[in-house]
Inverse folding.
């Protein structure tokens, strides 16, 4: 039987999220709490802006949010493992790669690579080189596009966003407030 989320178990959830970013399923496994309660806890913490999505992991084909404790903006881009490998490869080089070279280098199928490269080209991270009918498709890095960072950065995780400066009202004494 799983434990219910209560005032005594909330510190377990907070400690787990502070230790490292986790998915809802990882929180359930690490704390031994029930799924329904953990999902309600995550919804309440998201509403209060105390946790945020740092990345998206893929379980088979479904994206799963990875949450971290603290202030920060939610990441919107979802990358599967193949796209992450390709982005990491193109991040450090200006070299063009064709479908066959990428398949050999990453140990993946050519159709998988072609599908992922089409996504990256559509998002403008890579550019498809012009080809002749007899040559394989090749891609290169788009030099005008900044590549995304994966995971939470240590600089902004857990920091409250700056509040705008508002003018403070003039101080009044209790006497001046009732005589006016």
């Amino acid at each position: 039987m799983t434990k219910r989320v209560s005032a005594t178990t909330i510190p377990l959830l907070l400690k787990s999220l502070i230790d490292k970013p986790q998915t809802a399923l990882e929180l359930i496994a690490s704390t031994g709490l029930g799924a329904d309660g953990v999902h309600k806890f995550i919804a309440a913490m998201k509403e209060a802006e105390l946790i945020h999505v740092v990345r998206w992991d893929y379980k088979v084909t479904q994206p799963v949010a990875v949450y971290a404790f603290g202030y920060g903006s939610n990441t919107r881009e979802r990358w599967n493992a193949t796209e992450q490998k390709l982005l990491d490869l193109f991040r450090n080089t200006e070299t063009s790669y064709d479908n066959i070279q990428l398949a050999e280098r990453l140990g993946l199928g050519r159709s998988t690579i072609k599908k992922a490269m089409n996504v990256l080209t559509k998002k403008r991270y890579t550019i498809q080189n012009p080809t002749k009918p007899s040559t394989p498709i090749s891609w290169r890095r788009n030099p005008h596009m900044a590549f995304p960072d994966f995971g939470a950065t240590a600089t902004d995780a857990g920091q409250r966003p700056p509040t705008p400066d508002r003018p403070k009202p003039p101080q009044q004494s209790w006497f001046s407030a009732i005589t006016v």
Q: What stands out?
A: The radius of gyration is 24 Å.
